[in-house]
Amino acid sequence: MKKNTLLILCLCCFLITKGENGYDLWLRYKPVSNHILLSVYRKNITQLITGDSSATMNIIKNELLTGIAGLLQTEIGYHHSVTRDGAIIAGTPRSSALIRNAGIATQLQAAGDEGFVITTKKINGKQCILISGNSEKGVLYGAFHFLRLLQTEQPITSLHIVSAPKIRLRMLDHWDNPNRTVERGYAGFSIWNWHTLPTYIDQRYIDYARANASIGINGTVITNVNANAVILTPAYLEKVKALADVFRPYGIKVYLTARFSAPIEIGGLKTADPLDAGVQQWWREKIKEIYTYIPDFGGFLVKANSEGQPGPQDYKRSHADGANMLADAIAPFNGIIIWRAFVYSHDNPLDRHKQAYDDFVPLNGKFRDNVMVQVKNGAIDFMPREPFHPLFGAMPQTPLMMEFQVTQEYLGQGTSLVFLAPLFKETLESDTYYKGKGSTVAKVIDGTLDGHRLTGIAGVANIGNDINWCGHPFAQANWYTLGRLAWDPAISSEQIAGEWLRMTFSNQPDFLKTASQLMLESRDIIVQYSNPIGLHHIMGTGHHYGPAPWVSNQQRPEWNPVYYHKSDSNGIGFDRTVTGSNALAQYYPGARKQWENSHTCDEKYLLWFHHVPWNFQLKNGRNVWEELCFQYYTGAERAGKMRDTWNTLRPFVDQQRFEQVSMLLKIQHEEATWWRNACLLYFQTCSRLPIPLQYEKPGHTLEYYKNLRFPYAPGI
Amino acid sequence: MKKNTLLILCLCCFLITKGENGYDLWLRYKPVSNHILLSVYRKNITQLITGDSSATMNIIKNELLTGIAGLLQTEIGYHHSVTRDGAIIAGTPRSSALIRNAGIATQLQAAGDEGFVITTKKINGKQCILISGNSEKGVLYGAFHFLRLLQTEQPITSLHIVSAPKIRLRMLDHWDNPNRTVERGYAGFSIWNWHTLPTYIDQRYIDYARANASIGINGTVITNVNANAVILTPAYLEKVKALADVFRPYGIKVYLTARFSAPIEIGGLKTADPLDAGVQQWWREKIKEIYTYIPDFGGFLVKANSEGQPGPQDYKRSHADGANMLADAIAPFNGIIIWRAFVYSHDNPLDRHKQAYDDFVPLNGKFRDNVMVQVKNGAIDFMPREPFHPLFGAMPQTPLMMEFQVTQEYLGQGTSLVFLAPLFKETLESDTYYKGKGSTVAKVIDGTLDGHRLTGIAGVANIGNDINWCGHPFAQANWYTLGRLAWDPAISSEQIAGEWLRMTFSNQPDFLKTASQLMLESRDIIVQYSNPIGLHHIMGTGHHYGPAPWVSNQQRPEWNPVYYHKSDSNGIGFDRTVTGSNALAQYYPGARKQWENSHTCDEKYLLWFHHVPWNFQLKNGRNVWEELCFQYYTGAERAGKMRDTWNTLRPFVDQQRFEQVSMLLKIQHEEATWWRNACLLYFQTCSRLPIPLQYEKPGHTLEYYKNLRFPYAPGI
């Protein structure tokens, strides 16, 4: 490519966009800013040699050439043999003789079927870097990892990396509807344009697959768990096939959600009873049909008998009956069934917290080998802070899959900067005590405690058709986090924040220090100003936008905030001890004892497990009312400080993204103040205690906040 | 800016996007490819001098610097006085002494309050180019026109341009709903993100205003004519204000749609009767409130008593009563009321074609001075080909505003390449004969025939949140066309296609010749394969996607295709002569006589005005059935040829946009074949005549086409 063409292209796009629109995510491949490193990189990266061509190998080749051209600002040659130092050799032992004969069999063995080996080797007397794996998918992951080393300005002179994913299924769950609305979506609408599929392949589909491959995601459920049977009709299967064909060379399998009543709705049957032979036959044929379109179809994700969805219980059958029926039908094709444990009964329950456990523990071991039970990180519903779900460790004979929520339904939705890695890590590192101390949720999920080979982590996607994919520029970090933690739950939040910031914004140390602090504190801040000391589920009804602790008119008790905070003149909090719902009994003693006594309970969860009087003393000497005031005011104040912090980063960020984040932080600060005022004014009607004088008075009355309406809030 | 930074930026964005995503529309400012011209431009453009700074003047300055840097690949200096040849001087007589003293008063007078003067002048002995207007808006239009000269590689050595818009209101009507769905939108969803407004200003809002200013659009109705009163509540007026503040410096006024029943829905009144004092008072206060937010608010667009919308007839009042009530309330603020003439009665009408005329002609002259009546180009509804609306020329005392549809509701929606300039021009150049021969629709609209000063052309927008704004890359040309024709209805389709292609793709002669031919034929082609020889309104129900001439089960007769084609064993077509509905009587004799006799009728409109037997002979010797077959088969065949034509243009177009268009043309060809087969198979059940043997047999049965369902087609 001639330099003047380059010069040309760039001047315009730079001048016109006045910055970056965020579409390129963490794959911007901007030039290495450290000039010493740059020259080292240029010396060590001079040519590329890849294995036999294939769809995936071509992607690897193009990605490496693209990335290196952007990062090193040099066009390296593509060769068939090593002719000089600095050769990059990418391939599998099968596709490349150089790899086959490089003597890295041991490392390759350790890499497993999806992992990769990146190692420095002398070949024909030349210094080379090998990027290898036993599968092309592994090489692809290795190529992206190698580019990440350059993007994050790491040393590459002596590489000896062997990396294999700790989790087998690393998935995104899209709650996308056929009309392109996205349930709990805050980044526009669905990127799946069903109307123009299968013929029109939006560039987004390709870039979506590429971005996921770059962080190791290998599965995607493209339809909402509140499922629509239309996706199983031939016209739509054609469209799903088109997407699967795009995703395949990136190592990504497509999954669908199965509407349990589909045999009635599109099959013309009278029943969907899983024990009915006709129903079983219908699913066998439907699944066979799907595999004619998509030979590597991943399987079904099923939400059954939950929040009004049809399921086996409609026919007095168990979840296992339902899951196994589908599992038997899909087994011949090596597909799997992912069955959600997020259920709660239609009749007034004593404590929704207990339902999933009560329904599923009796089914431990009753599921087929190709069934996984997908469990949310907490027992209620993706709250800003929840104790880990008691099902973890309680179903040893059934592989449990983690369901995180990447989209920020309860964490500021599209307008808040909240980095979710600390939340995810908090759950993964929680100790279930199921096999004694150290039986962390991570070890349950990765199969080590029970020897499960089928393991998985899923994240409810935060992706929409906004130009920058995720709406909030920092929401991209949560997509990135899901992939990285699913690859290795042990990676630290600091590590993830650092990688993402370097690739997305800048490698400048001054920028990184401040920006990663901003990210790492953000989740604590939103907990403080929205759901402090164990409060939960006190948000607005339906759209879940903003505070509404006063709501008590919802048809089902567990849909009402008052059900969860139980605030009254005596005190506040949900008693889940023996004197209350005793949900605590679902935890192993080791876990239970950190929470069961209100005086020793980890105060982060005080009101989660205990109903305490307003004058209840906390360790810091404040009573519960004073503590609520302290938390809400401190949280809102810290939300305001985030704006000041961001303003100091202006020199490091392009104008467009800088201003986007500035405006969003202003909204977040307003929302934080709104949460603070609305919640304290409401709880004050119970505590009848004054807001301490050192705090500014709420700007509006409780009535004002109660009367706010958002008829068109997104994500419903 | 240092060249290496430029080099840097570009390499990545170029390599990563593998082409252009279309976001930059016709404002790409790519380098001038003709190197002789480039050196001439560089010689004649060396420095920029602008008038006193202001929001608009800063936009002008930045646009010129941005455009020139991109086009000429040189950074020209910004100066305060002319120091060398090649100075560009931009400003108004008020803001710039250089302009004031340049001796161009006569030209400026001719430019009027929105026009511009671009002229070559010697100033202080230096060769300069003056870009001037009496208003900053005029200078802004001039700046974009000057850049267009460079983008389209025109000579600039001796410029003497005076240009003033022929139409005063040049508007886009957005049919955007508060939930971000877009009625008849095929480019994603609404670009108005109401939830994050007013604080979050999406870059799109700015780029939208800029794109409109570049083609002279000076007004935008941001809400759907099927209106929602929520937009008139304070929370939403805050949001509207934020958009108005963004648009203002680009010379664009904001208009809203007024739901006629708003006084009841959000005002708590018992009635919306326009003669009720309380209702009048409510609107006076509401309008006063709006102007406190938006001091230059444009006014209301109203769809009343049409398709179920509320209106004055609900209270036995006339359209004039309704419009005048609002006009009186808004007059003190110099706002206007745009009242739509698209109405048809609730009771079974003899011919929907006649309704608007019958309802509105009696109201001629009964409207206030600040009311315009907005009339669709044709009497039915934006059909692929319609005779001009008989209202044009029939209400001389009332200014009529043209309503075109830029979004392709009936012209292939989001998947077809159809250039609409020929359609718009066909209407504008139609002769109403109202003041004798030459009384064209254009002359009615531009006010010359009746001396109206209030004139307007509106287009229903085709803009959505797809990255390229319009979904189909060529749909951008229709947005561009609306602006250019509203500025001057006399500009030819060839001129518009040429300008747009040069700016959007390439100035290469080989490209331009073929691509403009492709565009100029496209509308004829879709008429041929969907609605030939005067057929109309035979599309799918609801979503209006694809053919459905068989539909006869709709509640209202005029919602059924069979109502429009009246096909039966005797023949086909809608008799609108004296022997039928006599809609022809609504036209002046000069116009009428080209259509009233089936044997002399312009055959483009044969079935529009006549019901003729299947064996009716056309001038070409074919009978009607043979002609239908000929038209449908030829049209579908030509749609296929468009693909071959596009393939020859691969060398001139970037990969991403080339492939987008290729895939869409494939869909269009499939849709054309579908139209052909479905329509001919259906009409054959009436004609009972064979499809001539030279044509390939339809691939499916009529039942197959009748059973196609599109439950989630866009734009409903």
Outline the structure in words:
2 copies of one chain form a homodimer. Chain A is α/β, with parallel strands linked by helices and 716 residues long. Chain A has 3 domains: 20-163, Chitobiase, domain 2, CATH 3.30.379.10; 169-500, TIM Barrel, CATH 3.20.20; 528-574 and 611-706, Alpha-d-glucuronidase, C-terminal Domain (Alpha-Beta Complex). Chain A has 23 helices and 16 strands. The first copy, chain A, has helices at residues 3-17, 35-44, 55-72, 97-100, 105-111, 136-151, 203-214, 234-247, 262-265, 277-293, 319-330, 355-360, 421-428, 441-445, 476-487, 493-504, 509-530, 561-565, 589-592, 606-609, 624-647, 655-687, 702-706; strands spanning 47-50, 77-78, 87-91, 116-123, 126-132, 160-163, 169-173, 219-221, 253-257, 299-302, 336-340, 371-376, 400-405, 456-460, 571-572, 612-613. The first copy, chain A, has an 8-stranded parallel beta barrel with strand order 7-8-9-10-11-12-13-14. In chain A, strands 2-1-3-5-4-6 form a 6-stranded mixed β-sheet, with helices on both faces. In chain A, helix 8 links the parallel strand 8 (219-221) and strand 9 (253-257). In chain A, helix 3 runs parallel beside helix 6 (136-151) and helix 10 (277-293) packs across helix 11. The longest helix of chain A is centred in the C-terminal third of the chain and has 33 residues, at 655-687. The interface between A and B is large, with 55 and 55 residues.
